[in-house]
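Milestone M4 deliverable, item 7.
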Amino acid sequence: MTNLPLPFVIAAAAAPAWVEVPKAHPMLVALADRHYTRQQPGTAQFTRPGVNLCLLLDDGSAGWVTWRPIPTVGRMDGLWCWECTFFRNEGRMLSSDLVRSATDYTHRVWGWPPRDGLITAVGVDQTAARRGRANPPGWCFIQAGWTPTHERDGKAWLRAPDPVRT
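Output delivered:
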C-alpha cells in the first residue's frame, strides 16, 4: 500500500463581525473621513445629534451608523423613522451582505422601527463612478432587500425591509 498525501485543507477564517463602538472611535472616524458625505475630515464628530448606533467590523474594514432623533425634537422632515446615516465598506466582504447584517443588527438592538421604518439616502452623482451604469444608486442596499422610494435633491432614498416577527 502506498502512502498518498492527504489533501491540503485550509480552514476558512471566521467572517468579520459587527461590533458596537463609540461614535468617536478612531477607526470609525477614519472610515468616515474617506466617505463622500464627510463635511469636516479630521474632526472626531461626524454623527448627528440624537441616538447613534455605531458599528465597526472587528477587522476595521467597514462602518455603519444608524441614527434616531431625540423624541422631543424629532426630524425636520416630519418622518417617524431611523436613518442609516453612514455606511462604508473598504474590505473584502460584499457590501450587500454587510448592509443586510447591519440592518438585522439594528433591528435586534432597537426592536421594531417606527412608522416610516429604517431609511437611507445615497448620493446619486457621488456614487456613480463606483457602480455599474445599469445599477441604480444604492445598489448594495437594494441587493440587501431595501426598496427605493424616491429621488430628491440629488439623493436616492431607500427603505429597509421590516424585521421578521418570530
